[in-house]
Amino acid sequence: MSRNFLISLLVLVVGTASSLAGDFAEANQRFQEGDFAGAASAYEQILAVEGPRANVYYNLGNSHFRLGKFGPAILAYERARVLTPRDRDLKTNLARARKDAAVTDESQLDPRINAVVSALSPNEWSWLLASTALAIGALTMVGGVIRLPLHWTRRAVGLSLFCIALSASALYLRRTESTRGVVLSDTTAIRISPFEQAESIATLSPGQIIQIGAQQSGFHYVESPNSGLRGWVADRDFSAVIPHQP
Amino acid sequence: MVKIALTEFYKILAALLILTASAMAAEVDAQLDRDTVAAGNGAMMTLRISGGSANQPVVPPVENLIIQPNGQSQQFQIINGQATRSTSYTYVVGSHTPGDYQIPPIDFMVDGKKISTQPLKLKVTDAGAAAAPAGAPQNAPGSTPDAPADAASEGKDQFGFLTVELAANERKHAYVGEIAPVRIKAWLPADSRANLRSGIQPESQAFTLHNVSGQPQQTQEIKDGKRHTVVTWYGGISATKAGKFPASLSVDVTVAIRDTAALKQTRRRTGGPFDDPFFDSVFDQMNTPMIQKDITLKSDDQEIEIRPLPTEGRPEGFTGAVGNFKFDSTRIPADWKNGEPQQVSAVLSGTGNFALMNAPDLAPSDAWKCYPAKGEFSGGDAASFSGSKSFNFSAVPRKSGAQEAALTFSFFDPSAGAYQTLTSDSQKIQVTGEAIIEEKPATAPEPPQPEKKTEDIAQQHLKLSAVRSLAPLVSQPLFQNLLILSGGLCLMGQLLSWLRQRRNDPARRAATTLEKSTREALELAAARATSGDVEGFFAAARLALQYRLGALWSKPPQAITLTEIHSHLPSDSPVTRFFIAADRNQYHREGSTGFLPEWRTLLDDAIASLNPSTR
């Protein structure tokens, strides 16, 4: 009974994986044939069904870029960067898309500090912090049971504390990334109040990075970090890099 | 005497006048003020009896012809000593049915004699050319008889008409893409009251109407010898294709005008101070009733010529702007870095079609890569024909070094009928960094292709990566659980470490050993006592006390002697007393077993008295 169940489960997993690989290959083929809209649709379908995958987001960004849709392209690249921050191709294409969209995303940090804290994604920094804390706990546990060499213990504790301090600092400096958003619409008005008829302060370019704040009746209070603009933007005009999960 | 003479003179004169009037023959006359009238309208018929008196005449009925009495008047005149008296009866005559009608002779009984008028002919035409006044009763058409002039045309324009003309007087045409200013006039009768029920509306698809002024102007103008109240709007029309098209604008108006039929009736003279023709118009205006009608004024009969934009002399940078513009300001940054975009701004002002106006170009064009601009229009007048438009766009230099840059803008000037190109003042700029290598040579002629991004982005990734969460671990509950687990492990480790250290403490281990030895010595003493071995009992009991005291005083058990005990404990303490007894037994060997229970009790007291305070 259990053997049959395991075989069925194995067949299901293998079948699903091969179907997903086929969909991904088909989407790539569409891209190669110049059907960028079709490729983008296929990539979005994979993401909707399978969940976030860095390469799918990357390829989706390329498709939107080829279509001249800089807002969705930059959003896809930003999401891919959350998953694979050290991908050189991704860095290249994201910079290219920003350049063509005439938008910037300048960090407020010192370049050297920014280089360090950007070396890992927030998720990776989180895992480093958590695993280091777990290592200290395990070390303490072992030290309680057996007597460990003092010099070895000191080095381990020192290294663990350094990792904790570093990862905690990186997470603190990048704390605003969880509320980052990308402007999608070509005509995104930033208004003084959350109403369609409210006066427009300015317009935001597609691909521009915004910080998302409170929500009210179809609008979010946002801030454009590079321009300092603050106001209300319709929900349809932007998308969060990290979608809110209720 | 003189008074009597004058009285007689007047009597004679009156008798002469009466005799003269009686001597004249009575006459009757019938007249229509027109011989043609539109159906639904009426003509004025006047019956006049002079030289006699007659009763009200009876007008014979005519099929489909309505004859409505409209008044009666009398006149008495003396001309060259000849007195004349006449009586006039007026009627409004009309019909709803077109056709030729004949009013038969009308009989009068004057001084007992029957006198008849001549027959009259009236032609009633189709009412299509002229609408019946709204205020006229159905059984009395023609309560507003028309003027003798062209009844049809005047009926059509009786309540007003609409005209459209290009505001630029020197031009009778517009160009494709141009928003040509137009002047739209609603011509209404001067003494009318009008209420606009709509705005100006286009009725054909040939033109698009733009920015019609919301507050029309009202003036008094004379056209074709008549005074009109003119309501004027300003707006713009544009067309996307060339040709001649009817203007086809309309406006809904409710117009109230004076009843001109009543105005034409002869007012009865009363002989008063204002009984003068000079005052007729004043009283007529005051007394003439108003009639009101809802109408739609149209301008179908007017055409506007739309010309295509000339192809000759069209600048390369022309993008469709039609009007007359100039640079108000420009801003080009002085310092650039290759590959880094900066904002360029310009403000253009003038008159024309701002909707078709695109951003100016950076010149020389091969030295720049420009991105789509954002424009913002500020209207300069109510109709937004004039104003200014500001542009902001990003540009990236392609070449390095010192250069000169300027902004150029091309447009078609409809007034001059020619293209114009504006160039801003040239500005010196400095570009640092390496020049951007173009992917395609600028001189290579290629057929026009649809716009396609061919930038060199990195290629697709063909390997499917693993599923990961976009939300970082730090924002998930798992992160907190891991930290709690880590803290638990630390606490557990500390607890284990404390237990381990406690277990390995030498003092604790020595105390435990001493306690164990004491317990063993006491058990041995009890066994000796049971077996009656007095010497063995005291030796074991003494050793037990030494272990216990050594543990308390942190001294080796062998170092505990009676002298040491005396220095710490009083001489009557159970320990001292037992130790003395034990020494005595050791050296004197009393050997009696009868005292053993007593000594065991003393041993128990001594052990019990050794608490930590004994220290």
Describe the structure.
The complex is a heterodimer of chains A (246) and B (615). Chain A contains eight helices and seven strands, in the order ααααααααβββββββ. Chain A is an alpha+beta fold and 246 residues long. Chain A has a five-stranded antiparallel beta sheet. In chain A, strand 4 and strand 5 form a beta hairpin. In chain A, helix 2 packs antiparallel against helix 3 (54-66). The model of chain B is unreliable at 1-6, 16-23, 129-154, 439-444 and 449-454 (pLDDT under 50). In chain B, a hairpin with a 2-residue loop joins strand 16 (217-223) and strand 17. In chain B, 24% of the residues lie in helices and 34% in strands. In chain B, strands 10, 12, 15, 16 and 17 form a five-stranded antiparallel beta sheet that branches. In chain B, strands 22, 24, 26, 27 and 28 form a five-stranded antiparallel beta sheet that branches. At the A-B interface, helix 1, helix 3, helix 4, helix 5 and helix 7 of A face helix 5 of B.
Distance between the amino and carboxyl termini of chain A: 39 Å
CATH class of the largest domain in chain A: Mainly Alpha
Helix content of chain B: 10-25%
| Percentage of residues in DSSP E strands of chain A | 5-15%
CATH fourth-tier homologous superfamily of the largest domain in chain A = Tetratricopeptide repeat domain
Q: Radius of gyration of chain B, Cα only, in angstroms?
A: 65 Å
User: What portion of the residues of chain B fall into strands of 2 or more residues?
Assistant: 25-35%
Poorly predicted regions of chain A:
none
Shape annotation of chain B: elongated
Q: Total helix count of chain B?
A: 10
Count of the separate structural domains of chain B: 4
Count of alpha/pi helices of chain A: 8
Fraction of residues of chain A in helices? Answer: 55-70%
**Helix/strand order of chain A:** HHHHHHHHEEEEEEE
Average the pLDDT over all residues of chain B and give the rounded result: 76
Q: How many β strands of chain A by DSSP?
A: 7
**Shape type of chain A:** globular
Averaging pLDDT over every residue of chain A, what do you get? 87
